[in-house]
Amino acid sequence: MNLSILLKGINILGISGPSGSEVNVSSVCYNSRQCTPDSLFVAIRGLKSDGHEYIDDAVRCGAKVIVCEKEVTMPPEITVVRVENGRRTLGLLARNFYADPSRCLVAVAVMGTNGKTTVTYILESIFQAAGFSCGVLGTVNYRYPGLVMEAPNTTPESLDLQRIIREMVDHGVTHLVAEVSSHAVDLRRIDDCDFDLGIFTNLTQDHLDYHKTMENYFQAKKRFFSEVLPGGRKQHRYAMAVNADDPWGKRLIRETGEISRPLTFGIEEKADIRASSFDLSLDGIRAEIVVGSMSFDVDTALIGKFNLYNVLAAVSASVALRVPIEAIRRGVRAMNAVPGRLEKVSGSTQPDVFVDYAHTDDALRRVLQSLSPFKRGRIITVFGCGGDRDRGKRPLMGKVATNYSDLTILTSDNPRSEDPLSIIRDIEVGINSQSIPEGSSEDLSRGMTGRGYVVIPDRREAIGAAIRSARPSDIVLIAGKGHEDYQIIGEKRLFFDDRAVAKEFLQNT
Ligand SMILES: CC(=O)N[C@H]1[C@@H](OP(=O)(O)OP(=O)(O)OC[C@H]2O[C@@H](n3ccc(=O)[nH]c3=O)[C@H](O)[C@@H]2O)O[C@H](CO)[C@@H](O)[C@@H]1O[C@H](C)C(=O)N[C@@H](C)C(=O)N[C@H](CCC(=O)O)C(=O)O
Ligand SMILES: Nc1ncnc2c1ncn2[C@@H]1O[C@H](COP(=O)(O)OP(=O)(O)OP(=O)(O)O)[C@@H](O)[C@H]1O
Ligand SMILES: N[C@H](CCC[C@H](N)C(=O)O)C(=O)O
Ligand SMILES: [Mg+2]
Q: Where's the Mur ligase C-terminal domain (predicted)?
């Protein structure tokens, strides 16, 4: 692509070397290792390293245009474009390079601490029932009909985002549902994508390693609704669907309502879209949903009140986009499982064993509260906390797990660069029940009962101990890793799948 087309709309502070129509660019890259002959390399000041240090590598790999923030000296045949913010510029270059693909489809962003992935699955199912071709970007994978790609991040980097949306549009996708993480808003991954609608599910503690305070975390989410969404070129009657029962959702409506035209959903509060009655069981949810003067019933195999909120979020977005009610009902009914979210891995004569992705205290509380009414025996919870992530949530999760479980097994969950035992010690701080500091599967078979906990750092051993000690009337919850098929220890990413491990132990009991 011609450099002058690529640089359209970009605020250039200075340019040296060949320029304008003389230069043709073969690809845009933000990682020097991906540069090939005639690439354009954007140097980004990152959190771990500075892209400016890789400019020479990029040129060695064939880059002939460098976009950067700092003054650099380059051979005369290399074009250097100086800009104020490399990350911001990458988004604009990506939009230009892939010919602005988000304009060509309906795009819905799903935001909030918990429930994003689940809402994307429900919306995808509704859109399919309505006959739309739907693409999804999120934690589990990036996909559109005929293709599934690995998802390195929940929300892709701007360049990858624009590339994938272009690919979707070229393959006939008409509707995009994207999880938008707070990191993605803060790191400007989505600024150049035009969304038709944003959903806000809830806000509770997570990611304070990155945002430091809940206020900053909220502000990152809010920026999407107050700047990114209205900054786009799409105009709809409603621009956001917000959980009116969530305190931060209420604040979001107060602070951005005038710009973003909210449609509210909820159970407790008077909301535009409300579940007026519902029935929750281990077989799923049945609910009566009221929309203005009209009402209709929905049913789904998803379990728990929190999933009713997720259904309401997806229904609200669909109503805002004028999807026919019949398609909404069919879509919700067809949506019976989200990988790794309260996924049952046991058979009918065995204890109920669920694998779930709860990795915050709010998620863990809601899942355990949803399972508690159905317990006939004990609830045994196995969980750990990820390394190099929000440390503040560790004691909170410890407290919730032991409060709602009869037995908790503390183990490891992606320790990354941290010592697994020191993560477990952080969890223990929140546990005020009688503690048995070190444990093994033998401690369990010796008859540990009550609201105690044991520590079994090896996740495989921990899952095995839980399943071996469970009686048929017990419920076992294996939380935190859900669909993940890896365990990150140090720099190593080893294959590990809670579901496979649990099934293996279930077969042998
Ligand atoms: C904190 C964070 O989000 N960091 C993301 C960010 O990294 P960064 O820009 O700081 O990159 P860096 O490693 O410092 O490198 C700086 C620059 O040098 C470049 N470089 C580096 C090495 C080299 O040899 N050559 C080279 O050019 C890099 O490509 C980069 O452009 O941009 C990278 C490229 O897009 C991301 O991969 C990276 O995500 C890291 C891996 C990450 O773990 N992110 C998590 C926290 C995250 O984003 N999570 C959210 C939410 C999860 C959820 O709750 O659902 C998500 O959306 O996934
Ligand atoms: N609406 C909700 N409110 C609170 N907890 C929820 C809700 N929906 C799901 N959960 C819990 O949170 C976990 C993660 O759900 P899900 O993957 O849908 O959320 P997410 O926002 O995509 O999470 P992530 O930020 O990790 O991508 C679930 O396994 C469940 O334990
Ligand atoms: N998307 C979340 C997922 C956490 C899942 C948990 N298994 C962990 O590794 O901490 C994060 O990156 O914080
Ligand atoms: Mg997700």
A: 340-482
For residues 289 and 311, give the distance between their C-alpha atoms in angstroms, rounded to a whole number. Answer: 10
**CATH code assigned at 194:** 3.40.1190.10
- Could you tell me the residue range of the domain that residue 154 belongs to? 101-333
Q: Which residue has the higher pLDDT, 279 or 433?
A: 279
Decide if pLDDT at 439 tops 60: no
Same domain, 154 and 292: yes
237, pLDDT greater than 80:
no
Query: How large is the ipTM?
Result: 0.97
pLDDT value at 435 more than 50: no
Q: What are the residues whose beta carbons fall under 8 Å from the beta carbon of 359, sequence distance 6 or more?
A: 206, 385, 386, 393, 397, 413, 479, 480, 481
- Does the CB atom of residue 100 touch ligand 1 within 6 A? no
What's the confidence (pLDDT) of residue 432?
A: 61
Q: Is the CB of 79 under 6 A from ligand 2?
A: no
DSSP state of 340: T
Average pLDDT over residues 451-479: 95
pTM of the model: 0.95
Q: Which distant-in-sequence residues (6+ apart) come within 8 Å of 201 by Cβ?
A: 110, 111, 112, 113, 114, 115, 116, 119, 243, 246, 309, 310, 313
Number of domains in the chain: 3
Measured torsion, CA atoms of residues 388, 391, 396, 397, in degrees rounded to the nearest 10? 10
Are 315 and 289 within 8 A, CB to CB?
yes
Give the pLDDT score at 171.
Answer: 98
Looking at residue 399, which CATH number applies to its domain?
Answer: 3.90.190.20
Pair 432, 484 in one domain:
yes
Which one of 333, 351, 374 terminates a domain?
Answer: 333
Written as six digits, the tokens of 309 are 């909120």
Residue 384 CA to ligand 3 centre (angstroms): 11
State the distance from the centre of ligand 1 to the C-alpha of 184, rounded, in angstroms: 10
Residue % of the chain over a pLDDT of 90: 90
As a whole number of angstroms, the distance between CA 204 and CA 248 comes to 9
Q: Which of 204, 207, 389 to mutate to test the pocket of ligand 3 (most atoms within 8 A of CB)?
A: 389
Ligand 3 pocket: which of 359, 382, 489 to mutate (most atoms within 8 A of CB): 359
338 lies in some domain: no
CB 19 within 8 A of CB 12: no
pLDDT tens digits for 347-377? 989 999 999 999 999 999 999 999 999 999 9
Mean pLDDT of the chain, nearest integer: 94
Same domain, 121 and 85: no
CA–CA separation, 229 and 244 (whole Å):
19
Backbone angles phi, psi at 164, to 5 degrees: -70, -40
